[in-house]
Write a structure and sequence with these properties.
The complex is a heterodimer of chains A (422) and B (422). Chain A has 422 residues and is of the alpha/beta class. In chain A, 51% of the residues lie in helices and 14% in strands. In chain A, the strands form two sheets. Chain A has a six-stranded mixed β-sheet with strand order 3-4-2-5-6-7, sandwiched between helices. Chain A has a three-stranded antiparallel β-sheet with strand order 8-9-10, with no helix packed on it. The N and C termini of chain A lie far apart (157 Å). By secondary structure, chain B is of the alpha/beta class. Chain B contains nine helices and ten strands. The N and C termini of chain B lie far apart (168 Å). In chain B, a hairpin with a 2-residue loop joins strand 9 (244-251) and strand 10. The chains are: A alpha/beta (422), B alpha/beta (422). At the A-B interface, strand 1, helix 1, strand 2, strand 3 and strand 4 of A face strand 1, helix 1, strand 3, strand 4 and helix 3 of B. Chain A: Keywords: Cell cycle, Cell division, Cell projection, Centromere, Chromosome, Cilium, Coiled coil, Cytoplasm, Cytoskeleton, GTP-binding, Kinetochore, Mitosis, Nucleotide-binding.
Chain lengths: 422, 422
Amino acid sequence: LKPTLCLRGSGYVGFANLPNQVYRKSVKRGFEFTLMVVGESGLGKSTLINSLFLTDLYSKDYPGPSLRIKKTVQVEQSKVLVKEGGVQLTLTIVDTPGFGDAVDNSNCWQPVINYIDSKCEDFLNAESRVNRRLMPDNRVHCCLYFIAPSGHGLKPLDIEFMKRLHDKVNVIPLIAKADTLTPEECQLFKKQIMKEIQEHKIQIYEFPDIEDDEDSKLIRKIKERMPLAVVGSNVVIEVNGRKVRGRQYPWGVAEVENGEHCDFTVLRNMLIRTHMQDLKDVTNNVHYENYRSRKLAAVTCNGGVDTSKTKNQMTRSPLAQMEEERREHVMKMKKMETEMEQVFEMKVKEKKQKLKDSEAELERRHEQMKKNLEAQYKELEEKKRHHEEEKSNWEAQQRILEQQKLDASKTMEKNKKKGKIF
Amino acid sequence: LLKCDGEGARAVPLAGHVGFDSMPDQLVNKSVNHGFCFNILCVGETGLGKSTLMDTLFNTKFEGEPTQHNQPGVQLKSNTYELQESNVRLKLTVVNTVGFGDQINKEDSYKSIVEFIDTQFEAYLQEELKIKRTLHSYHDTRIHACLYFIAPTGHSLKSLDLVTMKKLDSKVNIIPIIAKSDAISKSELTKFKIKITSELVSNGVQIYQFPTDDETVAEINSTMNGHLPFAVVGSTEEVKIGNKMVKARQYPWGTVQVENENHCDFVKLREMLIRVNMEDLREQTHTRHYELYRRCKLEEMGFKDTDPDCKPFSLQETYEAKRNEFMGDLQKKEEEMRQMFVQRVKEKEAELKEAEKELHEKFDRLKKLHQDEKKKLEDKKKSLDDELNGFKQKKTAAELLQSQAQQAGGSTTLKRDKERKK
């Protein structure tokens, strides 16, 4: 990458207008947000929602969760469309009536987890289609967890719930009905809660650090006040000529939007005015991605769990994974083929050699025998020749002898005739 | 690909200012912090002023030497720059087609361009399909806009232009521009533009249309659509006109001012490409061109959505099924290869056995011959022996006779001698 090129002179390009283009398009598209509220009944959850969004989300026609008596934990959602300053927001509020209300609350968090996971699953399925369409984002972007204002510390249920959900959704713990605590009690309570949260390594939603000095001061202030202690009200009261939302007591009015009375304003500003987008981003980039990678890595087609995936396999897309496997297999086959080929050649060579040896051996033997035979023949010839010679010699000799005899007898006859012989 | 149309939501009024109208600002802040990225592809023959136009558009001098005309094929050279204008950071990638239109045979010219575009889509797809992925920090290299440079012949589009644009129109947003338009007179230009537009329409080439669905920009966009293709002139040289330094090209007969809308459409191009529709170009690339690529790629690999509305589609199940099918295929291939080897071995063995048999037969024959020879020899031997014996007998008999005769002759001789002596 080249170092940052600064534009020359007074040259105007115009891409500084990009943010406006983004703004324009986002307004046209509209926004959506899903907020989940969890806590025992009677902690003022519905009232707080109505106060936050300055509307009667829960009214006569659409009663809030506390007015709906449930035996088991339900998860219900209400969807409303609100408009402000040209900006349209589709707001989904998810209730969990019955949470923590039973005698035995073991696993009361399970329906909540199931709901969150099922929304992630819907998103995953929609995102994974071949033919993708525009899809709504119904994932839970934020979970407000209501802590009862006991003043002591977290209950085991609080700890259990937050531990199980902190890696699935942005958890923002709130101290409900804070107008039952004095400021000092509230401070102690907050300290205790944060201590316990740290002890149990619960990761609640963290505000991202911003480079801007101004904002980071603000952020630090918010962080110091966590968990936020809130008060909600559906009633507007007149105080010193001002109309405020508040709770009327004989001893005074607890004002919802008074920063000295409670942290409601901090919550509203943070949740809606400054960090709504970040809550969605963290949900998308962290919680959803965790869900997705867990889901994709774990299940094999038999529905069993495959924990054998290596790190390499995780950072590669399944298509690339298949390609890799295909290549490996082709190599393996090639190797197998060459090996088999080698073994085959070797065996053939062996056999051929054996045959050759055997042939040579037989040849040799045959040669041997032939030579032998030839030698014998020669011998025979020799003998025969010798015999012939001897025979002819002897026959010649015999003939001479015969001749001699003949001559001798002839002479004798002659002599006889001559009277030489008496 | 998110849609927020408030489907299934009931509209509720707000009793005051809630504050979510800051959402577009929150989104914009996030984008500005993250930085923007934009990728332009310049397609056109060598010498049409592509680099100069980029320099002029972005008011800076990008790297690179002017290319020669002797390139053997079309190569794509890409350079990435970090630009900043006020608080907006832009990572700009400019891709140039080097050697386009220089070859004698231009049939394959478009191929390397299509390949390049597809490669960027593929990279994104791979990232999107990974199990552990980091999409929000991924450097998007997909081409957002393709400026197609048309030579200022004044007549019509070249066939290379039509062929190339037809191949690219389903893969990238094409913005056709008439390059070096200071070579064409105004009247010729109007005719030229009409001819080009009609040729594009009659050949079914889909060029990018500036969007008219958003009222804020509908009017200007629709007007500009009517000015396409933009006739541009590029120059980084500055000339003094009046008391200002302006970008211009100086001729003996006058000065062509780049930013004078009477002289050329440069300002229109800059306005449309950068100031007004940069974000839309990015969006179209992602939601239309990339989706098409992705869909085709997945279908090619055999993936398909099961039941669009009832059963949710599970990409991961399909992967598993695909993978098993594919592994099964590989197993089969392996088996086949093994079988083939077994077959070969069998055949070779039979061959060798045959050879062995032949060898043995050969030697059996030889053996037989040898036996016969031996027999003959034996017979000959026998007959010789017989003859020898016969001769011996004869000889013995003759010798016997002789010795007898001799004895008798001896006595005869003796008698004779005796008689003689007497």
